[in-house]
Amino acid sequence: MRTRLPPIVCAAATLLAPCFAAGQEKWRTDFTQHSVPLEEIVSGGPPKDGIPAIDEPRFVSVDEADDWLGDREPVVVVRQGQEVHLYPYQILIYHEIVNDVVGGRPVTVTYCPLCNTALVFDRRLGDRLLDFGTTGRLRHSDLVMYDRQTETWWQQATGAGIVGALTDERLEMVPGQSLSWEVARETYEHARVLSRDTGHDRPYGRNPYTGYDTGEGPIERFFGKALDDRLPAMERVAALTTMEPPVAYPFSTLSERRVIHDEVGGGDVVVFWAPGTASALDRGQISDGRDVGASGIFRTTADGRTLTFEPAGRTAFRDRETGSEWNVAGLAVSGPMAGHQLDALPHGDYLWFAWAAFRPDTDIRP
To answer: What is the rounded CA–CA span in Å between residue 11 and residue 357?
Structure first.
């Protein structure tokens, strides 16, 4: 069942951007090129760049950010080499896109609240360096972003160009993991944290989508497909974004098992789940959101050894080969393997309806 337009969307539009009038926007987009029916793309309310991307991000230390982030608040972790950047959902929910460079790699960090998709992409496409803004449009409830160089429109959920000169091109996905502030703070104590000094006046910490992810389904006005009823529409799934065939692991299963070993794409992977991360789409204050947990998907090898894992207590994991203890970020925190980090695979913690809309061929595991 899809949700009819509730008051939260009107409230979100008021907070995020002014209402727009038809004809105010100017586009250089080549609308004769498109890979999806144009009628599937609908207005989300704000105009082009009405939800302002962050193009010159400022950062603070972990200690400074600890003054305004709650332990259970979700953040997106992007790690490239020795450099780690953390992007709090309380900022992303008001900007949806951050154009950044991490460890020398140009990335765009994106978040679509209506799909709960926090995804990271490499901003390079061949010899082009792109930066991104918001179109103010949605397709199947998902953010449609655009690059400022060609004004091609891109589907956030897939990283695919869908309208314009770069139609059918695809951005490379970069591993980015959503974790609680507590886990991120303890795992990456030298990380740089996106500052609330964005140049915009927004009530950071407040959730403009109160109660959204406890509804029965997506907002009817923005979602134009039949729902895939293999799972409840608003169930969270840990989905491997680059694997063929696509696979997804329901949080309802992960919360019971905590660890799942699997073979995907010809390789062994392990899926972790741990409690302690708040939903950004539940209570009026993000820090008060109900506990939905966090997932991580990793290769099972570290330091040349193939490891098998099992739960160890409420939030930790143990490998059977060395007895080392690991956290949901894939870091060994004690034992012979202490300090080793598992290789993360690009994945997202999607709402099921959103993932299934773009990948209906998904195999639900296990």
So the answer is: 26
